Amino acid sequence: MSERIVLGIESSCDETGVGLVRLSDDGRVELLADAVASSVDEHARFGGVVPEIASRAHLTAMGPTMRRALEDSGLALSDVDAIAVTAGPGLAGALMVGVASAKAYATALNVPLFGVNHLGGHVAVDTLEHGPLPERCLALLVSGGHSQLLLVEGVGEKITEVGTTIDDAAGEAYDKVARILDLPYPGGPPIDQQAKLGDPKAIAFPRGLTGPRDARHDFSFSGLKTAVARWVETERREGREIPVPDVCASFQEAVADVLTMKAVRAAQDHDVDTLVISGGVAANSRLSGLARERCAAAGIELRVPRPRLCTDNGAMIAALGAHVLHSGAKPSPLDMPANPGLPVDTIVVQ
Amino acid sequence: MLVIALDTSTPAVTAGLVALDDGLPRVLAERVTINPRAHGELLMPQLVDVLQEAGRGFTDVDAIVAGIGPGPFTGLRVGLATATALGQACDVPVHPVCGLDAIAAAAEVTGPLLVATDARRKETYWAAYDGATRVDGPHVAKPADVPTEGYPVAAGELAEAVGLPAVGPKYPTPAGLVAAATLDADPEPLVPMYLRRPDAQEPGERKSVLTR
Ligand SMILES: [Zn+2]
């Protein structure tokens, strides 16, 4: 069999991604190309992703992004041995563009098609950067769309949810707080930047779901967002100037504190010694810094893919597709639907 | 010349294989399913069936013709994404066709003709023709507001809704799509006809979170 080339297509939110990886006989996966087109700027004035705008952008970007990925890798479509596509979870109309494209490429090229889980892709992408994962590990996924703790027992085989947010995703809280402070969308980068200039202890914002009787592995960020809004509004009413860096630093501290505390706790509860942090918020400097400290103290190995691989892209879907192919899974049927609510334990749609 | 014809701009999921001998389209096989919610699930399996029935493969195909709407958004994109990918994978040109033009071509009416399809939200996509040549449109409007004077007949799913006797097909057909395509020129870019802006609202003033 020797080496196989797997192509991955991602269109679940506002990034159109096409990635190419090489799968070796021993299951190792190597990154060959990672082309991404983003419609993030088109959503900025709406303060969040507008599904119809994202779907339109995917259709426009899919062909050119595919061409760019092939050019970057020096490969032709005829070199591709399998195609993986995000079947869900995500925005229905957006997913449908990627799934329709993948079905057509796979059928015309006469190669197997794997409809895979976007969340599994965020975990699998780390193997492109740091090599094979241990048999069991824990993954913390944090982005505008997800905040999850996953137990990974074979990246192409078994992933179960340990905890999730009961309201907003962490990245959503960043976007909302940015709006409260009149900072640009998406909120992650400007808040991180401001936070570096502020005092993380200046304001004591609440840590959601950290009481002794609260769900051990779930998150809540809605109360934190409201607390920030209330604090800022009170200050404005009193006619005081808002110390934006202090608000950002204190908010960011609350988010990073809860995420890392719960991730380490879940790793210990499940007796695993490796933590992967992925998703757009993984690029946040305080989150990765605090995670490094706490993992070191707990004797847990921390793996964080480089920022470019943490955000949504096609390479992560190609990587998961390669692991699924290596595990010997059956291809997905040609009438496979896009599934906006695909459960996390469905790694490949059968 | 062998042409794949695809259309997902209406409730019909349409795939066909059409041979063009001396410029006349001859349908070798076609599959049409009326299901406005399953374009993404049905289109490729139907196309595979079509090729199998015709005893042809993707390597035999010389061009692809795709209906670019106007059509409700999500389904429309399935056909266009599929056509784009097939064109790239098979290295053949993809020719866009306005779905209303395809219906007019298949109606084979001489003289004035209106074509009206379902735009949902109680509106219709419509265009006016002289034979198969579009003279006005496409537009989106309430059926009652479509100017029908001087038009004896209409084609398309909403022909009767605009108040005219119906002729020709309700939906774009493979033969109509190929007849309406300009296959002897370089293809125009495959740009969907949405005719409506995305529903999106810019956020207004923030609501107070303080209780008084
Ligand atoms: Zn994601």
Automatic annotation (TrEMBL), chain A:
Record field: catalytic activity: L-threonylcarbamoyladenylate + adenosine(37) in tRNA = N(6)-L-threonylcarbamoyladenosine(37) in tRNA + AMP + H(+)
Cofactor(s) the record lists: Fe(2+)
Alphabetical keyword list: Acyltransferase, Cytoplasm, Iron, Metal-binding, Transferase, tRNA processing
Ranges for domain Gcp-like: 30-318
Cell compartment(s), UniProt: Cytoplasm
Gene Ontology molecular-function annotations: iron ion binding; tRNA N(6)-L-threonylcarbamoyladenine synthase activity
NCBIfam families, A to Z: gcp_kae1, T6A_TsaD_YgjD
Primary enzyme class: transferase
Originating species: Saccharopolyspora flava
Keyword tRNA processing: yes
EC number: 2.3.1.234
Family: Belongs to the KAE1 / TsaD family.
GO CC annotations on file: cytoplasm
Annotated residues for binding of substrate: 141-145, 175, 188, 192, 284
Repeat is among the record's keywords: no
Pfam family name, one: TsaD
Gene: tsaD
Cofactor note: Binds 1 Fe(2+) ion per subunit.
InterPro entries in alphabetical order: ATPase_NBD (IPR043129), Gcp-like_dom (IPR000905), KAE1/TsaD (IPR017861), Peptidase_M22_CS (IPR017860), TsaD (IPR022450)
Protein name per the record: tRNA N6-adenosine threonylcarbamoyltransferase
Function noted in UniProt: Required for the formation of a threonylcarbamoyl group on adenosine at position 37 (t(6)A37) in tRNAs that read codons beginning with adenine. Is involved in the transfer of the threonylcarbamoyl moiety of threonylcarbamoyl-AMP (TC-AMP) to the N6 group of A37, together with TsaE and TsaB. TsaD likely plays a direct catalytic role in this reaction.
Highest taxon of source: Bacteria
Residues reported in the UniProt entry to bind Fe cation: 118, 122, 312
A single GO BP: tRNA threonylcarbamoyladenosine modification
UniProtKB/TrEMBL annotation, chain B:
CDD domains: ASKHA_NBD_TsaB
Stated name of the protein: tRNA threonylcarbamoyl adenosine modification protein YeaZ
Organism in which the protein naturally occurs: Saccharopolyspora flava
Gcp-like domain boundaries: 36-152
InterPro entries: ATPase_NBD, Gcp-like_dom, T6A_TsaB
GO biological process: tRNA threonylcarbamoyladenosine modification
Pfam (any one): TsaD
